[in-house]
Predict the 3D structure of the following.
Amino acid sequence: MPITKKQKLIYAFITVIITVPAFVIYCLSIENGGILNISLKEVLIYIPVELVLAYLAAVFVGSPLSLKIVFSKIPKNSNHLLIQTAIVLVTVCIMCPLMSFLATILYQGIFPGLVYNSSTFNLGNFFIYFIPIFLQTVVINFPFALISQLFFIQPFVRKVFNFIYS
C-alpha cells in the first residue's frame, strides 16, 4: 500500500488508468443501447476528459476522505485485508456519486433537459431533469463500481503497485 505522497499519487494514477476506460465503455454502452453501438470517436473524446477529472477527484477528494473515514472506524493495527476492503468500499461510496455527477454532465449535456428548453431555464427545471438523471446514473454505476473495484481492479492495482515498489 502507498505510504509516501509520491506513492499515493502513483497508486491513484494506476487506478484511474485502469478504471476510467472500463467506466467510459460501460456508461457509453448503457447510454447507446449496447457495447456494439459505441463509436471509437466517443470513447476517444470521453476517456481523456474523465482521466483528468477522475484523477483530480481521487487525489483531492476520494482517497483522503476514504482514509479519514476508514481509520476513524477501524484501528490502524487491524487485519490488513479488512482495512484494504474497507478503503475500497468507502472509496467507491465517495467516488461513484462524484463521478456519476460528472458523467451526467458529460453524457447528458451540461444541463439535461434544459438544453432543449433553454428559453425556459429556471431552477425548477434543473431539479426536474438533472437530479433524477444523476440519481439514476448513481444507481446504475454503483454495482459495477463496487464489484469491479473490489474483485478485479484494486487487486490488480495492488499487484502492479507492489511490482513497482518491491
User: Anything to note?
Assistant: The radius of gyration is 18 Å. The first helix runs from residue 5 to 31.
